[in-house]
């Protein structure tokens, strides 16, 4: 079966809005046309993606899986089309994937000062599949935080960062300057595999709502700072390693030079 990318984009719009009418408006098509396209997509896949009622649209188990897979598929196709256009225009481009909370901008500035004719771009790496932008071609190099699947990758250690306990600002532990792991005994933790969230925004929203505490890297907590949340250092929690990663078989001089520049730059930060 050939994947119809147009139907996949239609499905993503319905999954995001949970409403055919609003999705149709976003796509600039009529609702009956959208409904027919989604039904045809389900027939092609031979599984139901949506549960329709008079008031709502919900995802089936298969629909949830496809909704999770779709962004990577669409992004990979878009990246491939961009590479084709770059070749046609004789454009050199370097794309760096980055884990949530990590900042690669200083390394990109240092690289651009040496290679002003190379266009640079970034793509976020989702925390549960940080290596995917490297494997599907969206990025040539990643500034990532372990753990991730490093099979077939060459990695260069950059540093370590501590983990902190993130909690509602009114939580009793939020009034302490620092914590130990023993202080968290008996607390409900929002860490995988206890409860996997689809985004950090979702995780922090659940924390703020009182659903539990999460141990997160310090840079993540700082990047998602908000007044109703507090984070405190956990003195005996193991830190997490940051590293640069590339596919092991990539040998381009441009990529090697970026790794050299980025390693020196990021280790100073």
UniProtKB/TrEMBL annotation:
To which protein family does this belong?
Belongs to the LysR transcriptional regulatory family.
The lineage, from the top, is: Bacteria, Bacillati, Actinomycetota, Actinomycetes, Kitasatosporales
- Which molecular function terms from Gene Ontology are attached? DNA binding; DNA-binding transcription factor activity
Tell me the Pfam families matching this sequence: HTH_1, LysR_substrate
Q: What is this protein called?
A: LysR family transcriptional regulator
Instruction: Give the matching PROSITE patterns.
Output: HTH_LYSR (PS50931)
Q: Which keywords does this Swiss-Prot/TrEMBL entry list?
A: DNA-binding, Transcription, Transcription regulation
User: Which ranges does the record mark as transmembrane?
Assistant: none
Natural source organism: Streptomyces albus
According to the UniProt record, one GO cellular component term is: protein-DNA complex
């Amino acid at each position: 079966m050939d994947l119809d990318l147009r139907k996949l984009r239609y499905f993503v719009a319905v999954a995001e809005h949970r409403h055919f009418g609003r999705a149709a408006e976003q796509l600039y098509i009529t609702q009956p046309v959208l409904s027919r396209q989604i039904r045809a997509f389900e027939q092609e896949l031979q599984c139901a993606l949506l549960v329709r009622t008079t008031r709502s649209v919900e995802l089936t188990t298969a629909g949830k899986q496809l909704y999770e897979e779709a962004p990577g598929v669409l992004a990979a196709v878009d990246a491939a089309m961009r590479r084709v256009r770059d070749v046609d225009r004789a454009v050199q481009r370097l794309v760096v994937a980055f884990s949530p909370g990590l900042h690669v901008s200083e390394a990109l500035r240092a690289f651009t000062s040496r290679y002003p004719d190379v266009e640079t771009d970034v793509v976020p790496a989702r925390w549960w599949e940080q290596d995917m932008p490297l494997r599907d071609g969206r990025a040539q190099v990643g500034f990532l935080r372990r753990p991730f699947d490093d099979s077939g990758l060459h990695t260069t250690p950059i540093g370590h960062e501590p983990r902190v306990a993130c909690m509602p600002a009114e939580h009793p532990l939020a009034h302490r300057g620092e914590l130990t792991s023993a202080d968290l005994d008996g607390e409900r933790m929002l860490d995988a595999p206890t409860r996997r969230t689809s985004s950090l925004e979702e995780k922090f929203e659940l924390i703020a709502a009182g659903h539990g505490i999460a141990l997160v890297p310090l840079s993540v907590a700082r990047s998602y700072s908000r007044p109703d949340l507090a984070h405190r250092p956990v003195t005996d929690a193991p830190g997490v390693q940051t590293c640069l990663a590339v596919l092991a078989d990539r040998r381009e001089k441009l990529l090697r030079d970026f790794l050299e520049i980025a390693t020196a730059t990021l280790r100073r930060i």
